[in-house]
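Q: How do we represent a protein-ligand complex in a form that can be generated token by token?
A: Start from the inputs.
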Amino acid sequence: MSEPLYDVLIIGGGPAGLTAGLYTSRAKLKTLLVERMILGGQVMTTTKVENYPGFPGGIDGPDLMVRFQEHCQEFGLETVTGEVTGLVDKGGEKLVTVDDRVVRTRAVIITTGAEPSKLGIPGEAEFTGRGVSYCATCDGAFFRNVPVAIIGGGDTAAEEALFLTRFASKVYLVHRRDELRATKLLQERIFANDKIEPVWSSTVDQVAGDQSGVTSLVLRSRKDDAQRTLEVAGMFVAIGVTPKAHFLADILELDRDGYILTDAECRTSIPGVFAAGDVRKKILKQIATAVGDGAIAAIVTEKYLDDFE
Ligand code: NAP
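Then emit the structure tokens for the protein with NAP bound:
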């Protein structure tokens, strides 16, 4: 039996991908959404989402994403688990490699998002899963009554530091500058929390440990270059994200940080290939903007398919 031809193939099942899928399946376009891990994307590792409109008092990230999925199911969105490794543009038809099969589609929406960046220091890889983590929501509960460090000064670091105070005896917030990038509201909560101790103007040179896991970090002051040891049982890295577009680097235009370049309506450098959400170069990365992107990409895709006929 020959492979069916989809109207739209969406790569990635976070807020942008699910929104695009909701719109295209509601518009009766034959849509397949391919997700590598679990539907929901980065929001699945967020404890509480406080700034997505419509949920006064906030909503747990996974609960919000289950609602997105249920909403998509109402319109019959087809989803499949698999990893996309290649995309070939044949004009009106695109060939997308999903695991070991090739899926034919008329248009593609890339919503692969981003993943936590790594520090790239000695000991980081060795102790990943044994004290080094990129997700406080996932791993925080393993660190009861022990001191931990969180690295970074943005919204993620601030939110995760606050979350970690539920378990850890102490949370060191290690930041390379002497002021946080996080929003004022989060900063106020950080400074009001006795369990959090900021360590300013410092970077991590090395992660040290033994068979039991991480035992300390070697910090370096950016003021006088002096090194010091910080005894902790865990290091949570929250220094921003890296876009997941490397597998498309040969065919799409990316910026130097690896984000997909698009116009304001989510068109990439290839006609019929669109990008939405955190994988796209844009000014603000929030669930609300991912949702907006997903809707725009879907409507522009629909128009592209109409015009092509
Ligand atoms: P971010 O805003 O890019 O912050 C990254 C932090 O890590 C910065 O403080 C940066 O320091 C530091 N950093 C970067 N590279 C480093 C390195 N090699 N060594 C040490 N420190 C390093 O990333 P994010 O906090 O993950 O947030 C990503 C986006 O998601 C942002 O737009 C954020 O607003 C959004 N977000 C929003 C919410 C929310 O609205 N509730 C929650 C989470 C994330 P500098 O400050 O010196 O550059």
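Residues 5-115+241-308 form a domain with the FAD/NAD(P)-binding domain fold (CATH 3.50.50.60). The chain has six helices and 19 strands.
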